[in-house]
Structure formats: structure tokens, C-alpha cells
Amino acid sequence: MASTAELEQLREEAAAALAGVADAHALEAWRVRYLGMKGAVRAALGRIKSLPPEQRREYGRLANEIKRGLTAAYEKRKAELGAGTTRRVAPVDMTLPGEPLRLGHRHIITQTIEEIVDIFARMGFTVAYGPEVEDERHNFEALNIPEAHPARDPLDNFFITPSVMLRSQTSTVQIRVMESQPPPVRVVSPGRVYRPDTVDATHSFMFHQLEGLYVDEGVSMADLKSDIDQFCKVYFGPEVRTRFRPSFFPFTEPSAEVDMLFHYEDGSSAWIELGGCGMVDPNVLDAVGYDSERYTGWAFGLGIERMVMRKYNIPDIRLLFENDVRFLRQF
Ligand code: DAH
Question: What is the number of the ligand 1 atom nearest to the C-alpha of 302?
């Protein structure tokens, strides 16, 4: 039968045991024994139920008082021992070499973008950025891509609403830049673009492009060819050659695809497609309110992954986006 006398005995026993506790280990054992989930104090409190109703009040009051008292004594002892332990730990040897910190670095795509932007900066180009969530005007309409054009197929784009989408090309920034300033314009714009392509070694639903735009009086296709050729020679090496194949893009006329003759280390070489380019279509200049009688311009859009993969001999585009540091650390 539970009684207040038993409680008093518990209090004395616990207090005596606590007085004998000499280190944190023993203190924890004491805590488990008396104040733990299965400890003596909790057990004593649990016995209230078995008492006749008239004894419960007195017993409960005393049991709770003991619990509070022992808890306070425990905290006090813990603080005393805690203050003591720091004095007992082994002294730190300040002469030992520290753990080396592994510094991270920028992703190879980011490094490449900075390098490319820097090359164009030396050729007189500034850099502009545009939003990745775009409207149809900037992704299509102002770029002379009509409603019925296959590039606007909902299955070939990530639409968010019927008129808002993830941009499928950085050509959007041509429009944004021209809307925000009068000519002349000489700008490059790197950034992410999105297309629902099936992912494989050469395709990703997200990749990076570099857009270029040069609009002024008297800009010609010769400027386009020499500027791209210059860039390729600085970025890939002076032995690189470029060629332009006739092509079609709605926002340029004439349009071309630009290839680069890349020399492999084993002595072989191959033409690599870099992207599209051409003379800005007068409709595009008209769409942003530029005088298309007075101004001409060139534009290009190059695939950044393609350049990185060629330059560093990376066989699979997925390696760039899997974020495996063992791979990324190499660059
Ligand atoms: N935006 C085109 C694409 O994603 C690439 C391109 C072609 C950009 C010709 C241009 C250009 O600026 O003149 O396929």
C-alpha cells in the first residue's frame, strides 16, 4: 500500500544518492533511476490511483513536491558537474594541423558563361539578362513567329498558362533589350531555356544558350561572320575555323547555321554545329519600334552546353546537371 511515509523514504534515499554522484555519468544513471520515464518518482505518482480517495490529495501533493525538489537538485548538480568537466578535458594542441577546408567553386557552366561574356566584353558587348518565365509576345510574337508556327506547339513548350511559359530560347532578351533602349545595341545574353525534350546524352529539358545582338546603322553579314569567327578563335583556339550554312529562322533574314571546325587531340577534326544566326528581320525591328529603314543588325543564338562539352570532351550532357561533385570538382 502506498503511503506518505514511503514517499519521505524515497526523498531521503534519492537525496543521499545524489550527494554521492561524482561525475556526469553517475548523474545520468541517477536521473534515469529517479526521474526517468520508468523511474521511482514516476512510479510513486502512478500509485495515486490505487489509494482510497481521501488519501489521494495529501499523497499527490507530497509526491509532486518531491518531484519538483529532486528535479531542482538534479539541475543544480548538473550545473556543478558541467562546470567541472571542462576543466577535465584534454587540452587542445594548437600546433596540430587543422582539418583542411574543401572550398567549393562555381559550376563549369557558370565559369564558361563568365568566360564567354568576358570575351564579348572585350569586343564591346555588354551583358543583359531576361526572365525565364516569359510571355508569348517576347518568346514568339515580337520575334516574328506567327500563331501557326510549329515552334509554338503546346507539346513543344512548357506553358504555365495559355500565354505564359518557360522561355524556349534566349532570343526573348533581344526583344526585352530593344524595348528598353534605343539603338545602337551591342549585347550578349546568357541564360537557361526550357523545352520538353526527352533527356538523353545530348538533350535536356533545360539547357543554356548565349544570345548575341548587334543593331546599328550599317551592320552587315560581314560583321556577323567576323564577330563569331573572332569569338570562336579566342574561346577554342586560333586554329579553329567557322563556316555558315544557309538556314531559316523567323526572326532573321537571311539566316544561317554556324559550324566550327574542331581539332581533336588525336589529329582528326570535325565540323561541330554551334547554333543559329542571321541578319535581324525588319519585322523584329518594327515590333520594338526601331526604324528598320535606318538600322540593321545581326543576331545569334549558341548552345552553351555544346561548347562546354566540346571544349572539355564531356560525352554526356547529363553529367553537367546531376550535381555529382566527383565530376564537377574536375573543372
Ligand atoms: N533561338 C534559336 C533557337 O533556339 C537560335 C537562334 C537562331 C538565335 C538564329 C538567333 C538567331 O538569335 O539569329 O533555336
Answer: 5
